[in-house]
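Title: Prediction job returns without error message
Component: structure pipeline
Severity: low
Priority: P3
Assignee: unassigned

Description:
Job completed but the reporter wants confirmation the result is attached to the right record. Sequence as submitted:
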Amino acid sequence: MILYEYPFNERIRTYLRLEQLLLRLGELIPRIHALDHHFALATIFEIMDVAARADLKSDILKDIEKQKQLLASYRGNPSISETALDGIFAQLDRCFQALNAQAGKAGQTLTENDWLMSIRSRIGIPGGTCGFDLPSYYAWQHHAPELRQQALEGWASSLAPLAEAIYVLLKLLRDSGAPQKVAAERGHFQQNLPSGRTFQLLRLRMDPAQGVIPEISGNRLMVSVRLMRPLDDGHLQASTENASFELTLCA
């Protein structure tokens, strides 16, 4: 099954982008090839660029507080484990304190490293990190893998508070939805959303054996899914066949 996700607002869109970059970074650092570590460093710079939004940190801290207030309303509910609630509260408190204690934006301390910033200024230029452009970086790529990994882990550690907060908030958001099986007649599905409730994320799980790709659009009033079939030349064509998939709306 392939899982597609569609964010309903810019804040969740940013969270998902950061999550994707952080997961990629986690995949690249443990590898030993210098090329993998080059792209790990490029990913760190990408995370810094996405996290440079002025209000991102305050948005995350506000979302953590909202989650704590929501969870507090479950206190005393016999169907909710108090032990599980305490564990989530502790995790949210830890995320809040770690992120709040961090000065500036994510990766702010890395901007004080002139060597890293010289690489950052060149890495976006096609071929800009050749040995004749950045001989010291070229030499670093020839260090033992363990030394490169140690350096990357040190630089990535400044992103750890952001990473944990993003992971926790997205997990709680995804867990808030209940999956439902729906059918798209002649390749199209549309559903009105209930008034008075604001959804933040749509999750769509589809069997790739059906051979179609969902194009999702939505707003606070409705969601629409158009199923497209890939052609041999790479273009997409609207499907006119019936299909089914699993839909989850997360608030």
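Comment from assignee: result matches the submitted record. The domain at 9-172 is CATH 1.10.3900.10 (YacF-like).
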